[in-house]
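Long-time lurker, finally posting.

We've been working with Bacterioferritin (Acetomicrobium thermoterrenum DSM 13490) and I want a structural starting point before designing mutants. I don't trust myself to interpret raw outputs, so I'm hoping someone here can both generate the structure tokens and explain anything notable. Sequence follows.
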Amino acid sequence: MAQKTRKLVEEHADKLIELLNKAYADELVAYFYYKTAALLVKGIHAKTVADQLEEIAKEEMEHSEELAERIIQLGGEPIDDWDEITKKANYPKVDIPKDRSDYESILKAVHVAEQGAIGVYADIINFLQKTAKDPVTFHVIRHIMGEEMHHEEEVETLLGL
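Top reply, 14 upvotes:
Generated this for you. Predicted structure of Bacterioferritin:
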């Protein structure tokens, strides 16, 4: 653990690690559902939808890695148990429809998940600005939030919104 890094957030380190672990859990859950949906999607437009879901899944995994690195830098440990991940996640389930050719419903489920992620990161940014005052974590979260906003926009484009 980097002592000076943890000292930056002083008494708020444990709460910040908790918030980051919940976001970490969200990213792993999102990766799982998006990757699975990309593999299972069927029908005439499957390639377009699968490619988009695959790209988002890849970025969700990158987000989980960025969050895990920051958790460790702050002296914590990323959650390492799947049951715990699904318990701690803000959004433990993405409702991907059983009909794998229902692109609109698949994309709507992803859209809801991305909007949820944006809300989670907005809350963490608020905590960082008002309480923890950690500029490094702020930068990491702002970067991830920007990508989540881009995902939302990409899905909206596919939905014709």
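Before you design anything, note these points.
The longest helix spans residues 103-132.
The two ends are 46 Å apart (CA to CA).
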